[in-house]
Please model this.
Amino acid sequence: MRLGITHALLLLAAGIVAVNACRSPNRPAGQTAVAEKKELPGLGSIDALPRTYRSPANNPTTPEKIELGRLLFYDPVLSGGKDVACATCHHPDFGYAESIDLSIGVNGTGLGEKRRFNHDNNIPFTKRNSQSLLNTAFNGIGPDGQYTPEEAPMFWDLRAKGLEEQAAMPIKTLEEMRGHGFSEDHIMEEVAKRVNGIAQYRRLFKTVFPESNTVTPTNITKALGAFQRSLTAANSRFDQFMRGDRSALTEREREGMQLFINSGCARCHSGPMLSDFQSHVLGAPDNEKLPVSDSGIQRSYGFRTPTLRNLRFTRPYMHSGKIQTLNEVLFFYEDLHGKPLRNPNVDRAQLDPLAAAVRVEFKDINSIVEFLNTLNDANYDKKVPSSVPSGLPVGGYIR
Model:
């Protein structure tokens, strides 16, 4: 199926095809192409998400495993001081991210912008802005629709592969969930011991992992990974448009999509997740709440390209959380040309060539933002358990 004549002519007049809608041979049924692949080299391509996700071979998804993972996700028993849960900083009210620049994990109270450290605090802020868990099932997906769940790139600095490996890292990190009471080497064993000491969890784990006679750290991370993988939001208006519904986007939004491509944004924000999952140096500002400058991946000041999906729910933006609105993000890219970089630790010669090639014009910013807002999908799993087996406050001390 092809795009409407008006839009097709617009693309032809611009000299490019803004969207690569070709699907891979393994694409789920029902996702038909709406345009032929006619991109010029270097501009990148964007596409709809698959309707379904894949799981690692050693951690197949089941409804029971997802629900066990949900309980663990909301249970503060996984934190050193039993005061913070995964959901504290990845809450469904904020698209499974958080509405503040840097999260407050251990020794905090409140949710989102109301969250504060308790008195006599000796815990730092988390190092980087909390990323959304929505659609992390598709992390690593390329323009051809191919991805490997076990190898899915995670975190701003790419330090983990796959949701299962990722799930253990916040538990091990001092300021996120561990606190001062346990060492990084021993916290997972302590958490498994606690969970195994709760009769309801023992029954649930035996049902989900019948081959194991006790609760193990590995099975905890498998349950958490299965739950987080289930958090998809893959039916935005953009997805509907790319699957053939020509009425899903307005003319202004289609124009914004064209401008997004023409400006060079899709060179990095590409594929179905609008991310190449690669490291790029942008010179984004540091957060003054941190005691030292965050130098990113291998001290290069490079950070992984974030997805552009569900941005409505996941502000503020950049790894430091220092940019508050989408308009300001685009102003940031406009300012890369001629103005001093916003991070004094980054020399202009270090700036990623793909970032330097982006050309965002002031007059186009509102249209591009309108397109970016078509990537939002509010119809995602927001179910919060009424209680957790430990009996601790659901989600930690967030109320």
